[in-house]
Amino acid sequence: MSSSVAVDIYTRLLEAWNRRDAAGFAALFTPAGLAIGFDGSQMDGRTEIGQQLAAVFAHHQTAAYVARVRGARAVGTGAVLLHAAVGMVPPGATAINPAVNALQSVLVIGDGAAAQIALLQSTPAAFHGRPHLAEQLTAEVSEVLRRGAVVAAG
Known about the structure:
Elements: H1 3-19, H2 22-26, E1 29-36, E2 42-44, H3 46-59, E3 64-76, E4 79-89, E5 102-109, E6 116-124, H4 131-146, E7 151-153
Parallel strand pairs: 1-6, 3-7
Antiparallel strand pairs: 1-2, 3-4, 4-5, 5-6
């Protein structure tokens, strides 16, 4: 699998989130896929991912994701590990909320149209004691937002 396939799937994932499309988001995972959220919550399996996100979207106005893919590399036959810096734009806002910046790791497996996400992990980008790194991440994802994109690679 190429890294461009992984970037495409990741882009579709964030676009589904931004549309508040729980079914579309979940459909990008393998049946046994795992999603670990910013707060440490876990959704185990495509069905649970879809159900949990449907409940979240029904009860909360969620922020929209913006991401810069920092890298995507093969980690085995038919497997790509993608990592990205992400920011979120709160509903009604036009700027990134730095308090919820994160780093995401995504393991994409399969080939071509059959490629799916096996793991999505979001980790808060707190950078304790290193505020310059937090500012750099905010600037990085703010540039993607200024361009009007959801995901930028490289």
